[in-house]
Every structure is written in C-alpha cells, then in structure tokens.
Design a protein that fits this description.
The complex is a heterodimer of chains A (401) and B (233).
Chain A lengths: L2 H10 L2 H36 L4 E5 L3 H8 L10 E2 H7 L5 E13 L2 E6 L1 H6 L4 E4 L7 E4 L1 H7 L6 E6 L7 E13 L9 E5 H8 L7 H9 L2 E2 L1 E6 L4 H12 L2 E4 L1 H44 L1 H9 L4 H38 L18 H22 L3 H6 L3
Parallel strand pairs in A: 4-9, 6-8
Antiparallel strand pairs in A: 1-11, 1-12, 2-10, 3-4, 3-7, 3-11, 5-8, 6-9, 7-8
Helix pairs in contact in A: 1-12, 2-10, 2-12, 2-13, 10-11, 10-13, 12-13
Chain B lengths: L1 E8 L7 E2 L3 E3 L4 E5 L6 H8 L7 E6 L2 E2 L5 H11 E4 L11 H12 L5 H10 L15 H13 L5 E5 L7 H17 L3 E5 L3 H10 L5 E4 L4 H6 L4 E2 L3
Parallel strand pairs in B: 4-9, 4-10, 7-8, 8-9
Antiparallel strand pairs in B: 1-2, 1-3, 1-5, 5-6, 10-11
Classes of the chains: A alpha+beta (401), B alpha/beta (233).
C-alpha cells in the first residue's frame, strides 16, 4: 500500500466522523456549485439573447420591464406604441436596423411574437423544417415549442389572448405551422414567430370595407416595441435621450438594464454566498476537530511510525492526504449536489423559466469548488499536522498507558 | 556493536542525565534496568537516534550517532533498529499484513510481501495476516508486534517493558520469543525493564547470562555508577 491507500484506510477507520465531514463539506460546496451554475446560466442567457441589440424602444414605463418583456420574454410589456412612430425612427441616421415586436397572444404559455423575418436573421436562426412565413397567419415554431406541443408542419392552432396560458381563445383565427427552427439554446427556442400582420389580423375586430377605412385602420396600427441596432457605438449616448425627449416612447439600453438587474440579483446571491461560506467554515471546523482528535488518538501510532524510520514530513503528508481524501469526496458530492439542484430547479420551473438552460454544464468558474475543498481541508489539517510534526517520540517510549 | 563514552542528555535546561559507559558486542542480550526516571527510555531514544546526546560519544552498529540528525537519522533508524514498545501500537485501521507493510512505507522502501509472510510464519501467526488488531488475542498481538520489530532485519532490537501487562506464563513466553527472534536475526537485543521476571526468563532460556546495565535512581548516582556488570544469578 502507498500513502494514498493508507490515508484512505485511516479516514474510514472512523466511518461516522468521515461521513459527517463529507456531508458537511458537501453541503457547503454544493451550495457554492449551485450559485456558480445559476449565475453562469443567467449571465449566459442574457449575453446570448441580448447580443447585437443596442436599444429597445417601446411605451413609456419601466425600462427594465421593456427589456425583460421584449428581449428576454420574461415579463409583460408596458404597453403598445404606434407603428408610425416606430417607422419614423428609421429615418434617424443613427439607426441601422429596426425589428418590430408585437406581443399579445400565446399558445399554452408559449408566446406568439409578431415580427419581421429580420428577427430570425438577427438570432441567426436556421430552419429545421419548412420555410419562413410568406403570408399573415403562418408561423415558425421554436424548437422547444415544436417538441413539447408536438405540432407538425401544416397543423393549425388558435392562439389564446394574453401572455400566460388560460386566456380566451381566438377560435376564429387559426395559425398554420409552416416552419420549425433548429434548436439554439436561446429564448427563440420557446417562441412562436409570425408576421406582425398576423397579430393585427387577430386583434382588429373591424374590417375595412373600402380603401379609406383600411387606411384609417392602418394609421391606428400599433406594435409592442422595436429592437434597434445602431450605426455607430456613439449613438448609445445620444439616441436614447433623443427618443425619451422628442417622442412619446422610451428607449432602454439592454446592457445597462441587465447590469442593473444582475446587480439586484447579486445582492441576493451575496446573501446565499455568505451562507455557503458559513457552511464551508463550519465544515472546515468539523474536519479540523476530526483530524485533531484522530491525531491525538493516534499519537502513539504516529510516534511508532517515527520509530520505524518515517521522517516527520512523511507523517505530515499522510495526515494531509487524509484531509485531501475528505476534500475530494466532498468536492465530488458537492458538485453532484449542485448540478442536481440546478437540474431540479430547471425541471420544477420547467419551460416557464427562460433563463435556465438544461443539461450539465462545466463553466471554468466551477474549478473554484475543488480548489475550495482542498483549501478548507489543508487549512483544517494544518494544525493537527503541526501537532503530529512536533510530537515528541520520546513520549511514546515513556507513556506506559 | 554499542559503545558509549561519557554520554549525557538533558531535558531543556534541567539537570543532565549522565549514563555509564557501555561496550557491547553484536548479538549480545543487554538487560537495562533501573527505577522510573532513571533514564531508561532516554537511553533507548539515544540508541535509536531519536535524540542527540549533548555530550559524549555513541557508536551503534559502526555508526557514530552523535552528529546524526533529521532525515539521515530516520533512514539509519529504519535500517538498523527494531522496536517493541510496551503498548504495541498496532494500527487499528489496518490488517496484520498492512501493519507490517507500514514498516516498509515508514522506511520509504518498496513493500516486500514475501518477507512479511516469512516473518509472520516464523512467529507462528501467518494465518492471522488478514485479521484486524482488534481480532487478535494479547499473545497474538505481541507476536505481530515482534514480527514488525524484526521485519527489516535490524541489527539492534529495542524492547521497552515488553512484559509489563502480561501474566507470568505469557511474560516468560514473550521473553523467550524475543530472544529467539533476536538470535535468529543475529541482532543485539536491549530489554529495558524493571520487571524481575524478565531476568528469570532470560536465565531460563540462555546458555550465556545476559549483560546488565543498571541505571541509578538519580542522575548524579547514575553518572558515578559502574559500567555494565554481570547479572547476578
């Protein structure tokens, strides 16, 4: 047997203490794994879904609500804005591209988003089946929607009013599935995408009988918001101010709002982090007490090892290895626990949550967990090792007990 | 084998313990006796290069131990010293086999499983190799500890109060076994004890009387006491 094997035997010579220590350490490390994974999921989701959108223009209200509703599809929008006002933005030389977004209906909780084909292009969405709509009332399904609802090309369905499941159905206006997108791992997977005109068609009860009526209806048309891409980064300074002061709309910068949101989430995460740190310190103390007692109980055995010719350093390494075994087991259990928490949370929140990607992830920050485990174990072992190091072998010879 | 001259050792700033000069040939059995506090354990520790003498010279197995310290002392001890403590200190977590293999680990040498089997067989405990120390009787444990002491074929075996917790018959057996094991390996044997039964047991199993080193009750007396003398019959 080598040092690793001896250390393993010594750890399991006191199975209850070993299990308790592994459990305590695992809980602390599991909490940290959970926090790291959740923040990684959230940040990644934000980065992915916000990429390339410089501003969102919509009804006045909370700018964060605008971002959450229009880009991340987590919240309800503050209201609608006139189509004409959005079209007027196109004349601004700072604006490179405008993508309209119209919200209002859903199918079993999945949002039906009226937009232009530019939306698909923006997210670099590719079709797994079918084609992009070429007329109103045709839809393209996100991969998750197609999978969970089991909708096929050519099938028809009616949307329900509102953004959550349970609104009244627009039974008279049926959508037809003409395309299914390839899975992307982003917000677009959970959307039903159609032409902006579809949303108008569903919601406009009045039908124009002549050209004048149709013109009047068109003048009143609204969209929920518009995603804006700038021609130059300098626009970030002037464009939102221009929109906020000269129009009845507001412009929100996703980067700014998400930073604010992450900061708010960060406060909660700090509390959890402090809690996890407390768990880790407790676990560290427990490991320390266990090792300290082990060294005291085995003082004679350790002195005998010195008598057999083991240098003090080799005995120190043996004790450190015992602590590292506990750390390794705990790190594995903690990582498994944290991943299971995240998977469980994703499962419980289901597809309602658009932030949580499914599947196991290993962001680089997760290396912190085994490193922390090793650090706690080595700190806990330091004093017992020192105790063993300076123990007087003579005491063994003199102690007759 | 063992040669000491004007050997002294002090604990901290206390009065130094002075030891009588000794000269012992390889293969000798030396009985170290004296009351508690007379320095028996210290003398053993000096012989095992666990502590360094402050004064005097100490040659063991051809090695001058006075300058030896740290890792070189550890390495020398692993090769040359076998040790049988009063409390056996068999690791409770390890089987008999692994307890013996631990001696190779301590010495930083590759495990020689054949040698372990051979020594256990010599001492009649080969069938206990896979047992835990808690599953051994007192006599079996004593044999296993003795096997560990002779495992590395040491030139000097130190036994510290080997009979203290044994009844008369077991004490006699233990001493006989110890002498046999030492003679079987041509090792010098030092038995530190204040148990009179050890002398009797030695007399019953040895053709030649063992040497005796009597340490005095107090350091001053020890310093002026005579060198090793013959054990009275």
């Amino acid at each position: 047997m080598n040092t690793l094997a001896y250390a393993w035997r010594y750890v399991w010579a006191r199975p209850m203490a070993a299990l308790l220590n592994v459990l305590l350490l695992s809980l602390g490390l599991g909490s940290i794994t959970f926090l790291l994974l959740v923040s990684h999921h959230v940040e990644r989701a934000f980065e992915r879904d916000l990429a390339g959108i410089d501003a969102v223009v919509g009804a006045k209200g909370s700018p964060m609500q605008l971002i959450l509703s229009g880009v991340l599809h987590l919240d309800v929008p503050p209201g609608n804005v006139p189509l004409a006002a959005v079209n007027a933005l196109k004349k601004n030389p700072l604006v490179a591209e405008i993508i309209p977004i119209s919200l209002g209906d859903n199918l079993q909780g999945y949002r039906i988003v009226g937009t232009s084909p530019a939306y698909l292009k923006h997210y670099q969405a590719t079709l797994a089946q079918g084609h992009v709509w070429d007329a109103p009332m045709q839809v393209v399904l996100g991969a998750t929607v197609a999978r969970t609802l089991g909708l096929q090309l050519g099938q028809q369905f009616a949307g329900s009013h509102g953004l959550g499941a349970g609104g009244h159905a627009h039974g008279d206006q049926a959508y037809t599935v003409v395309g299914v997108l390839a899975a992307q791992g982003g917000v677009i997977d959970r959307l039903i995408i159609t032409d902006t005109a579809s949303v108008w068609k569903v919601h406009e009860s009045a039908q124009g009988v002549d050209e004048e009526d149709r013109q009047a209806l068109e003048d009143d048309r609204e969209v929920t918001m518009a995603l804006v891409r700038y021609t130059s980064p300098l626009a970030a300074v002037t464009f939102p101010r221009w929109v906020n002061t000269t129009t009845a709309m507001q412009a929100a910068a996703p980067a700014l709002e998400v930073t604010r949101l992450l900061h708010m989430l960060g406060l909660g995460a700090d509390v959890l982090r402090a809690f996890a740190a407390m768990l880790l310190v407790t676990a560290g103390l427990s490991v320390f007490i266990a090792l300290w007692n082990a060294v005291r109980e085995r003082q004679g055995d350790l002195a005998l090892l010195r008598m057999l010719g083991a240098p003090a350093g080799r005995i120190g390494v043996l004790l450190m290895t015992e602590a590292l075994w506990l750390a390794l087991l705990s790190a594995l259990c903690g990582l498994a626990l944290g991943q299971a928490f995240v998977l469980g949370l994703g499962w419980v929140l289901g597809l309602q949550s658009q932030l949580m990607a499914t599947g196991l992830l290993w962001p680089n920050t997760l290396w912190v967990v085994p490193a922390l485990a090793a650090l706690v174990a080595l700190c806990a072992a330091a004093l017992p090792v020192w105790q063993a190091y300076r123990s007087d072998v003579l005491q063994l010879l003199q102690s007759k007990g | 084998m063992i040669e000491t001259r004007q050997l002294q050792y002090a604990y901290g700033a206390g009065q130094p313990l002075a030891f009588p000069d000794v000269a012992v040939a390889q293969g000798t059995v030396l009985l170290l006796s004296g009351p508690s506090g007379s320095g028996k354990s210290t003398w053993l520790a000096l012989l095992a290069a666990l502590v360094r003498a402050e004064h005097g010279s100490l040659m063991v197995a051809g090695q001058n131990l006075t300058p030896l310290a740290g890792r070189s002392a550890d390495a020398w001890r692993a090769r040359n010293i076998g040790f049988l403590p009063q409390k056996l200190h068999l690791s409770a977590a390890l089987s008999v086999q692994h307890n013996l293999e631990l001696a190779f680990w301590a010495a930083g040498l590759p495990v020689d499983a054949q040698r372990v089997g051979q020594v256990l067989a010599q001492l009649g405990v080969a069938e206990l190799a896979q047992r835990l120390p808690s599953q051994l009787s007192g006599g079996q444990a004593q044999r296993v500890a003795l096997a560990r002491a002779v495992l590395m074929q040491p030139r000097l075996i130190l036994a510290d109060e080997p009979t203290a917790s044994l009844d008369d018959a077991a004490a006699q057996d233990a001493v006989h076994l110890l002498v046999q094991a030492a003679q079987g390996h041509s090792a010098t044997l030092v038995i530190a004890t204040h148990d009179a039964r050890v002398a009797q047991a030695l007399a019953s199993c040895m053709a030649v009387s063992p040497k005796l080193l009597q340490l005095g009750p107090a350091p001053r007396e020890a310093a002026s006491s005579a060198a090793a003398r013959r054990l009275p019959a």
